[in-house]
Amino acid sequence: MNSEIREHRRLNLEWYARPTEEIARALLGTYLVTRSAEGTTSGRIVETEAYLGDRDAASHANLYKRGRSALIRRYGHVYMYRSYGIHTIFNVVTEKEGIAGAVLIRAIEPVIGGELMLTRRGIDRLEKCGQGPGNLCIALGLRLDDDGNDLTTDVRVWLEQGVQPDEIAVSTRIGITKNPDALLRFFDPASRSVSGHRRAQLLESATVVDLPE
Asked: Structural domain of residue 155, as residue ranges?
């Protein structure tokens, strides 16, 4: 697929102009794309978690000075951080400039560059390549220095339009000790790439989320 087609399908700035929780649902079915000297890779997003800024005790805006400065950027930017000193984690910054919010991408289904993803992960099961936030960053070649990139203009990492799943499941977030009861994790219950935590309730349908062009 050539760059002109990719640019045409890229999510534009207006797409991100809505509340964090809506973005977390709307991202399901979209494509996270990376390009490097090794090649182009992409994956369909199948699991997300919303972090609601000042009103959410689990948000990095409340936990870390660097997290707050990153999360009050204008929506559509990348927020990368290192989890437990080991895993690189990819987030989409949400909300208007000065208001903190983000969506953590927890899982993808590989679409383009599967062999490259398998090599990067050192495994032989494609559906496992992007299962988990740290694993998907390895598979897609995402790096800490991608932090601050603008998803609407960047040539290395961006998001493309897709089709939402027929059903969306919602549950509490994984590994959270602060605000643990919030139903802010969303996933495609039909995907084999979603993490093993599948106890959830179904929303009425994917049509609860508006997907502007």
From this structure: 3-203
